[in-house]
User: What shape does this take?
Amino acid sequence: MAKKDKEDDEFRPTGTIAVLAIFVVTLIAIWATIYVILVQRGGTL
Amino acid sequence: MKQYQVSTAEKKFIGSHLLVAILALAVGSLFGPLQAFEHAGWDFYPYLRPLIKSYYQGLTVHGVLNALVWTTFFIMGFLTFNVIFGLKRPLKNPVLNKVGFWMMVVGVVTAAVPILTNQATVLFTFYPPLKANWAFYVGLTLVVVGSWVEGWGLFTTYLAWRKENANERTPFIAFASLITTLLWQICTLGVATEILTMLLPWSLGLIEGVDPQLARTYFWFTGHPLVYFWLLPAYISWYAFLPKQAGNGKMFSDTLARLAFWIFLILSTPLGFHHQYVDPGVPPAWKFIHSMLTFGVFFPSMMTAFTVVASLEHGARKNGGKGALAWIGKLNWSDPSVAAQLLAGILFFFGGIGGLANASYNINLVLHNTAFIPGHFHLTVATGVTLSFMGISYWLLPYLTGKKLWQPKWATIQAWAWFVGMIIFSNSMHVLGLLGAPRRVPLNLAPYVPAEWNSRLIQVGIGGAILFFSGFIYLLVMLKTALNKETVETEVEVPVAESLQDVSLTPEWLDRWAPWIYGTLALIVVVYGPVLFDLIKNISLTSPGFRVW
Assistant: This one.
């Protein structure tokens, strides 16, 4: 039990940071792509 | 440790919600693929003419049954379960909950009659001046009021628990479910006001005209928080159940989870104008304020993403997961409930990105009313929410009925098929929107479709076909499970994840309701009050009703 608690205490969500970093990069890339596509099209439909 | 036993009567009551929800999904899902097939040039609507008169009637059935009925019934059932199981006590006034449930059922039937008889082909947003038969509005009102009554049943149950447990932290699943219920009670005031003060008297001939601008403002007062009413139950599952199912993980931060729910309550409602960027009656300054608040919701969303992924990682690491991303492979992907919710979460990431694009004023002006929008909400409500609910039902139905899940492998295939089908469908819809394809249009009949849309329209049809297959498998698994002669040996364990931190260390102010409720109401008054006051003061009940179908 004590070992488990120690494992829990030592847990650092490094993989989570990696996942969220990928998410943020993807977000910026997609948002910028949408923006550029629409600007290229003249911004009107 | 022995789990709290939910009574058989309460299990049946919760199961009744699932039954109505799944029936609604079954009928509504027949029409989703028909819309997609129509886009691809495979128009089946002429063959349905004796029953369904038009593309728009099919779209109304699809939207009302899937976006409103399937979700609301599933959610009320799931929240009821969470409150009972979380608080470890029966409902305080079960009659109240039953009255609410039956009001909702009567409401659905009342609204279904005009929809199926082509008297209410107004889509699920029922924007005036499109005018439906009065029974449609009465039915919707009963569904909303019924859900309020059920919510009051949950609140009285909480108050009874609080009286007996004055110093305890509210268990998370009950806490988050009660916030979701409260959010719904507050935000539906908009649509209730719209129907009761305008649409219903108008449809009954008591007033001659309607004010579409004011009606839209009331609608979106409810319409965007409705998205959070759909999402928060999925989040509850992702926070509190999924980590346990996916690898015996623990919830990373009870404090962060509770704080996220309070912020969702505060920020969900006062941002409806981002759906009205092109409405001329809303001053630009208020649109700007609502757009900033919309971006504000990004923070509790990211807090949720962080806590949920960290909770999953916690379990995966304990099971030998390594690396920055390889640990994901150690999650329990063979469990259909887990696979469905993980896949829902992955696509929801992209739905969130599309949502930020929609919320951006300049981009919204060119994406508004294009196919991008249904592409977006099929990633959020039709996947993040619906696929999660499907995943939840893979353990909840066996728990409620004591029957073994029929063919778990098929259930897993169903989840993957939904994932693949939705990628194809939704990606095509997003691209079509960027190319200028309008939404809510039977594009197969449109004379202006350029050649560059054609391959994407075919993909919409292919995606729709895969989704139809997946939906069919889901319904088959549910039906076969409900009728399964094989019963579970021991009661299905409710997979509630423990908190990684000692829950008693969660700050007490996160369990006090009054300040958060006052703050929520105050913000709504500040950012909606002036515009609503102005619109009501200058109300113009002059627009006649239109029936364009």
Observations:
- Chain A has one domain: 13-45.
- Residues 13-45 of chain A form one domain.
- The radius of gyration of chain A is 20 Å.
